[in-house]
Design a protein that fits this description.
Oligomer: homodimer
Shape of chain A: globular
Number of helices of chain A: 5
CATH class of the largest domain in chain A: Alpha Beta
Order of helices and strands of chain A: HEEEEHEEEHHHEE
Strand content of chain A: 15-25%
Helix content of chain A: 25-40%
Number of strands of chain A: 9
Number of domains of chain A: 2
Chain lengths: 250, 250
DNA sequence: CCAATAGTGTCTTTTAGACAATATACG
DNA sequence: CGTATATTGTCTAAAAGACACTATTGG
């Protein structure tokens, strides 16, 4: 073994040699998937995008869009990042550009036997889609059929795998984030009114919001510059509402 | 194909047949690990448990305790749940019983090339250990060496893999949870004083807490029964402090 | 007695919540 | 005009933050 001035270089060389020699053991490995809980609010209803399975297992049942993470087959090619896999699935299965959608890792579900075929660990993500983008959604090629299900009907559907549990976890997370973050903005069009934003809160949390009190919270966001007035008014059944948009700073 | 009265039974039979015939494709699969960010607060310092690697890659560097998830090799044997893997690693690498430790899934890290050997996706968990349990911790058999590192020295250490990123994510999560949850109780002994609990908050969040205001928050927990008075006083350098413990309801 | 810190009290500001009152459309 | 609802206003209560004050110990 050659003498080196630092010892560190030597260690690096040693590690390089180790890696060159390294052969992955043939231990059993799980399949790893990403599944997406794609949510939107249209016509005052919270909906989740589901895809009808056309293959076993759970053939004919509704399931979350998703797929296996692409893993390369060596040290050089290790495949795609998890976020990239989620983004790819989103774009493949909905045609929606990542850029217009809020996407966040939710939780990893890996119970044994959650998939009867084999051990599958799924990294679940949730995506929030603005209602004006919903018409752009087209089911991807590998989906026999896609549909936006009413969240309040979830109990009646019997989803594939543990996907109902995943959907409920996503809902809890989104409802929680409404309180302290800006996620609600990902569920309204680029311009919106106070009542529209309030409706999103009510629909996601399932609880009525006092219009006056909600307006006060909204005003604080206005003052802080998160939101700014937009031109125009929204015509409604009664008094028209002022239209707002997110501030430039965002 | 036999006629069946419901069609559902038929579908189940079909699926059973599918599963019996099913052969897992030999697609590349990632290795899946669980890594643990084990945190404690001793002597007014936040510390994280690290283990010195005695194998390549990153031989000689410090890393989070963890290991590969045990995956069975078929439909029947699918191995252990993720939480079980985390619990097992905790017990193996620290000797601590799951029962006495707060354990929660943190986030899943799966960047390509985060491990130079092969594609490894790690489901990170964090664990909170009461200071009085720290002396019980003994490094597991497969660890050459374990040590509790000062969190504030993390920048100087250069951890293996992306483990520094994981530790920082855990810290953010714990600091966030202090605000609205009971996790702080997992970082003090079974009985504790108000200043001790306050110190945990200050150490984890890195921000001073006003003693008076903190005491008021504490009093609210007292009234709600989350906490109750315990016998004895804690002798300090000055005026002794009253000792409390968690309420029976917990 | 004195230094240190546990524990209390006070005052201000912010935020939430309940709810009344007003304003302004559309039909 | 009248109904609906956006918007403003008022009042109360809870909670946070700043900070002064008191109490009780060990040294």
């Amino acid at each position: 073994m050659a003498l080196t001035p630092t010892g560190k270089l030597e260690r690096d060389g040693e590690e390089r040699a180790f890696l060159a020699r390294y052969k992955a053991g043939d231990y059993a490995r799980p399949a790893v998937a990403v599944d997406l809980v794609v949510l939107t609010v249209v016509d005052a209803e919270l909906r989740v995008l589901l895809i009808k399975r056309d293959e076993h297992p759970f053939k004919g049942k509704w399931a979350l869009p998703g797929g296996f993470v692409r893993v390369g087959d060596g040290q050089k090619d290790q495949g795609e990042d998890l976020d990239a896999a989620a983004t790819r699935e989103l774009e493949e299965e909905t045609g929606l550009d990542r850029k217009w959608v809020y996407l966040e890792q939710l939780y990893t579900f890996g119970r044994a036997h959650r998939d009867p075929r084999m051990r599958v660990i799924t990294v679940a993500y949730f995506a929030l889609v603005r209602p004006d983008l919903v018409p752009m959604v087209r089911a991807g090629g590998d989906a026999a059929m896609a549909d936006w299900f009413l969240m309040r009907n979830l109990g009646k559907v019997s989803l594939a795998f543990d996907h109902e549990e995943i959907v409920r976890a996503a809902l809890r997370r989104v409802a929680g984030k409404l309180e302290y973050s800006d996620v609600a903005f990902s569920l309204v069009p680029l311009t919106f009114t106070v009542p529209e934003l309030r409706a999103v809160h009510e629909i996601v949390t399932g609880e009525k919001q006092d219009p006056g009190n909600f307006r006060r919270r909204f005003n604080r966001m206005l003052e802080s510059g998160v939101i700014e007035k937009a031109p125009g008014k929204r015509i409604t059944a009664s008094k028209p509402a002022t239209v707002y948009r997110f501030g430039r700073s965002r």
